[in-house]
Design goal:
This protein has helices at 2-21, 48-57, 86-89, 94-108, 129-141, 159-163, 172-177, 182-185, 207-212, 215-226, 243-246, 264-276; strands spanning 116-122, 148-152, 187-189, 191-197, 229-233, 252-258, 281-287, 290-291, 294-295, 303-305. With 310 residues, the chain is of the alpha/beta class. It folds into two domains: 1-27; 73-305, P-loop containing nucleotide triphosphate hydrolases (Rossmann fold). It is globular, with a radius of gyration of 27 Å.
Length: 310
Amino acid sequence: MGRIAEALKRAQEERLRRREAAGAAPGGPPAGAAREGVPDAGARAPDAAASTTARFGALFDLPAMPRPFIVSASPLPPESVDRRLVSFHEPSLVVSEKYRAIRTRLLTANPDGGSRIYAVASSLHGEGRSVSVGNLGFCFAELRHLRVAMVDCDLRRRGLSDLFSAADKPGLVDVIRGDRPLSEVCLPVVRGNLHLIPSGDPAGESPSDLFGGSRLASIFQEIRERFHYALVDTPPMDTFADIGLVAPLCHSTLIVIRLNSTPEGVLRRCVRMLQANRIPIAGSILVGECHNGLARPESSDYYNPLAAEA
């Protein structure tokens, strides 16, 4: 028994020496550490305000783009902007604030400030997809340190281009064909940090053929390098298959839903299609009542984010 006790004593002494060598006090917790449930007297309590500032500071102090981008296209004048883009024409409306709320949710979902491309989709035509892209674009551009692009990938109807009176201008199709560089089709819109990339004229060529090659992927890569945020207007998911070619090149997808109009079965089918193709869904925008093509100021549900993060 004496030998066992002596061995236990030596083992305990060896453990104490190792703890002391590691900076710990014999028989106590490591130096500088707090005992469980008891704050360390020398430790500084976390500052909640400082923590919040650090968490959201990246939203307003984004890194510079890796390459400068000098556009040669003529800017679009303010009178070319459709009146339905209330975030520009009537920024004090409740509807404009709803768009800003969506913008803020997307910003907070990206605290590191990395470049993001969002596909904006809808199940059917006429659900407010292009109008949503335009309004969100102006809201993002209100933050002057952000460089923002709106891209019209609906080559059949060119709704986003039409909202800016640019449906007849060179655009994405011309870049895909190699006829023009991206800098020649990026149209500055009112503000120096907001740009429109129109669809261009496909001249009867199938959008699937234009989108199917590797050229579109390289264009989206350049957009990712040139802009902090890009919003891509896509054709309706239940009508055309283009979303399957465009959305995988984007960070995630926003789905526009028209209240009391979008058929639930169609919407569910489209969501399942996105999920089957492993396309992330960032959230949805609920579109409510409108009057004469403009949002009713009293309708607080005209555009409302239903989900925020992918």
